[in-house]
Design brief:
Elements: E1 8-13, H1 16-42, H2 46-71, E2 74-78, E3 81-86, E4 89-94, E5 98-104, E6 107-112, E7 117-120, H3 125-128, H4 133-146
Antiparallel strand pairs: 1-2, 2-3, 3-4, 5-6, 6-7
Helix pairs in contact: 1-2
Amino acid sequence: MDDVRDGVLGVWRVGRSGRLVGYLLAVGPTGGALSTWWDVLAHPDTQNVEAAGTATAVALCFALFAWWVLLRVRLELTTDMIVMVNPWGTQRLPWSRVGSVTFGNWGARFHTKDGFTYTAYALSDLAAGVRQDARFADVKRVSDAQLGDGKPL
């Protein structure tokens, strides 16, 4: 494991197309809100201020949604733990509890020895808009090495 830095074996985020959509969801409405505030500077009246406030609130909602669902989502594999940051929460799973790793439509699936399954949304087909087979192969290679199948990284 020569490529390990500070105990981190790898970090995977939503694919480029998903991140691009996230940034566009955040930046697009923000540009509209800025435009309405420029209008307030040119024509300062109550109606324009209300419109600018509404546009700002909408832009903030879009930015928070994009960050929460696409931009903060990630999968981190460290030497002692798996960290899955999904839109619905963050799971920390020690390698000692993991029995196998598979790939599904919703992302990399970590199956525990006691029968539970944890999914990392960062590798889902829906999060990136394209198949994630190649990225999952990297996750699988690291996971197999951590689970002790004898193949070196």
